[in-house]
User: Which sequence fits this backbone?
């Protein structure tokens, strides 16, 4: 009986020791790689790379990982990041031609430059400190100037106008519109992948092919349930997406308009210069999808027996969209698995058009744009324009309402006057109280914080156009605060316009084997329709930057003349004395006779000619005059410019 407690303790100790192993056999790290290709109406091709890494919670899996990047895991643990999104974008997404009512345009179309937002699981008074440390860490990790977002003049705390985020108290948002995007940012982004760019779909990422595109955006989305969440089974999820819009290379030949197709044929080798030599061996799945939009499918159905295009590779599965109410047309996905391809048999998907086809991409309810009004370097105005994407068919009732959320951040040196807000509905001035349901403004503070406006607009569905205008004054900056290219102008970040009542969701008739596909999950996920406006370039009054150079140059010239003359005079006197003494010792009597003769001719005593003492009245007055003259000029110059 005495051994029974010892046996029980040993049994409990073994259970506790092997519990992580048993749990780890069920929960494991996962990595997915997928590529979505989609032809666009304006003779371009959209390539959307999606890489997803998952790791179980630390409490059940531990802190040692095989696939998940260590730098991202340490970042989450050190700064207690709940959610974070970082994007590097070159170019602007064309909402009118490439679409604005789908998951790609709403989630992956980003403003030019750098955009960063993060939510922390820390007390509210510590959020700013964690944000600053996070920006410095990301700056070193991705070789970018993200550390400039540490200043309170570059970031803000949205309340409810940005994406309807649930953690508004711990959310911080900042942008750098002028940040240049290059391979130095893409290389560390690729190093987070298990196979980097050596194998799998990431091997297609040829630098020259990507950066010569019309639009390029690399994005990193991080979500964590490590800290006090009820969904402990999700752990940390890292999504890496790269969205590129490329122009297929076509040889210009002398073809007639009737024989030349409106869309160029393309292949993976023609747009990327490479083929896929199989999947990354560490990935759980590796698929390539080819998507045909709804309007394109409708145009293909009109051809009836004629085939509109031809694929060089037979797809393994054809996935059709279900529950569609858009004129009985549905989107189609062609799926290609990379399991059976290798270096000896690479994958090269070719898309050849057979007949000219014209279609349009799905549009958001309203086209949002922004522009400047006014002239001069003192005052101006910002206008946000909203135009209906579809003509009014007359079947819309008067009770139908369209909600629009607007989120805008302006730098502190653009002093917005929010009491001057005006609204024009269908070209006519109207009272803002008739359409603004909710608004929050935070005026800017000089060199402390930017200006923020969050507004909820409620328009009737029969609207054709609306415009929101705000006046502002241009501030003055200290000479040290101007950038190197100040004459180019100052950037105002893009405004965010979202439509909460419209969701980008597609339903596919798929089985359980494809439910874990990241691309299909994103296409089926319900997210609000969102678009970004243009980045505005505001010219400010700039000083004459050449004036400090002129002052420095002239001051250095005066000092050079002053000290040069002084040293020259001092050195000349010492040299004359030495030469006089040497000459007297050599010549002897002849030199004395010549000195007496010279003294009589000049009518001076002999003593003044034989010796040149340092206290000579003639030389002292001449030297003193030079010193006083140069010092006076320097004093007058300094007093005048100070």
Assistant:
């Amino acid at each position: 009986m005495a051994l029974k407690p010892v046996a029980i303790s040993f049994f409990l100790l073994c259970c506790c020791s092997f519990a992580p192993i048993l749990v780890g056999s069920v929960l494991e790290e996962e990595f997915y790689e997928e590529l979505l290709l989609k032809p666009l109406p304006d003779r371009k091709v959209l390539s959307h790379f999606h890489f997803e890494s998952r790791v179980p919670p630390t409490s059940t899996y531990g802190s040692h990982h095989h696939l998940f990047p260590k730098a991202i895991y340490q970042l989450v643990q050190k700064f207690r990041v709940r959610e974070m999104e970082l994007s590097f974008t070159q170019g602007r997404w064309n909402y009118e031609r490439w679409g604005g009512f789908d998951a790609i345009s709403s989630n992956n179309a980003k403003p030019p430059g750098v955009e960063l937002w993060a939510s922390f699981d820390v007390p509210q008074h510590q959020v700013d400190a964690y944000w600053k440390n996070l920006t410095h860490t990301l700056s070193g990790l991705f070789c970018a100037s993200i550390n400039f977002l540490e200043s309170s003049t570059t970031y803000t705390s949205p309340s409810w106008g940005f994406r309807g985020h649930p953690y508004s108290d711990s959310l911080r948002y900042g942008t750098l519109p002028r940040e240049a995007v290059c391979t130095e940012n893409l290389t560390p982004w690729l190093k987070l992948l298990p196979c980097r760019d050596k194998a799998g779909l990431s091997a297609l990422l040829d630098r020259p092919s990507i950066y010569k595109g019309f639009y390029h955006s690399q994005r990193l989305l991080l979500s964590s349930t490590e800290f006090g969440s009820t969904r402990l089974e999700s752990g940390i999820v890292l999504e890496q997406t790269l969205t590129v819009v490329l122009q297929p290379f076509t040889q210009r030949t002398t073809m007639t308009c009737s024989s030349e197709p409106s869309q160029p044929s393309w292949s993976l080798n023609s747009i990327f210069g490479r083929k896929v030599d199989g999947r990354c061996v560490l990935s759980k799945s590796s698929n390539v999808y080819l998507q045909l939009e709804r309007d394109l499918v409708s145009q293909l159905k009109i051809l009836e027996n004629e085939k509109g295009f031809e694929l060089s590779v037979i797809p393994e599965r054809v996935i059709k969209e279900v529950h569609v109410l858009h004129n009985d047309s549905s989107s189609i996905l062609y799926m290609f698995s990379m399991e059976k391809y290798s270096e000896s048999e690479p994958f090269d998907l070719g898309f050849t058009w057979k007949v000219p086809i014209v279609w349009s991409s799905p549009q958001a309810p309203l086209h949002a744009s922004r522009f400047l009004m006014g002239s001069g370097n003192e005052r101006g105005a910002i206008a946000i324009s909203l135009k209906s994407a579809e003509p009014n068919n007359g079947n819309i009732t008067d009770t139908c309402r369209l909600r629009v959320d607007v989120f805008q951040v302006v730098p502190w040196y653009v002093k917005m006057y929010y009491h001057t807000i005006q609204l024009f509905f269908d070209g006519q001035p109207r009272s803002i109280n008739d359409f603004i349901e909710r608004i929050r403004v935070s005026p800017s503070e000089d060199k402390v914080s930017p200006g923020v406006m969050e507004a909820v607009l409620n328009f009737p569905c029969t609207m054709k156009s609306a415009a929101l205008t705000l006046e502002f004054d241009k501030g003055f900056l200290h000479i040290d605060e101007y950038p190197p290219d100040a004459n180019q102008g100052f950037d105002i970040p893009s405004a965010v316009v979202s439509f909460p009542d419209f969701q980008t969701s597609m339903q596919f008739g798929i089985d359980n084997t494809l439910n874990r596909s990241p691309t299909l999950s994103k296409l089926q996920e319900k997210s609000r329709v969102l678009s970004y406006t243009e980045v505005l370039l505001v010219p400010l009054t700039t000083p004459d930057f050449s004036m400090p150079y002129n002052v420095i140059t002239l001051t250095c010239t005066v000092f050079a003349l002053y000290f040069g003359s002084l040293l020259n005079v001092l050195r000349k006197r010492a040299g004359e004395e030495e030469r006089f003494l040497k000459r007297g010792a050599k010549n002897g009597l002849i030199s004395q006779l010549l000195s007496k003769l010279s003294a009589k001719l000049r009518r001076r005593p002999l003593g003044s000619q034989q010796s040149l003492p340092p206290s000579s009245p003639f030389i002292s007055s001449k030297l003193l005059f030079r010193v006083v003259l140069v010092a006076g000029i320097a004093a007058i110059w300094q007093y005048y410019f100070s």
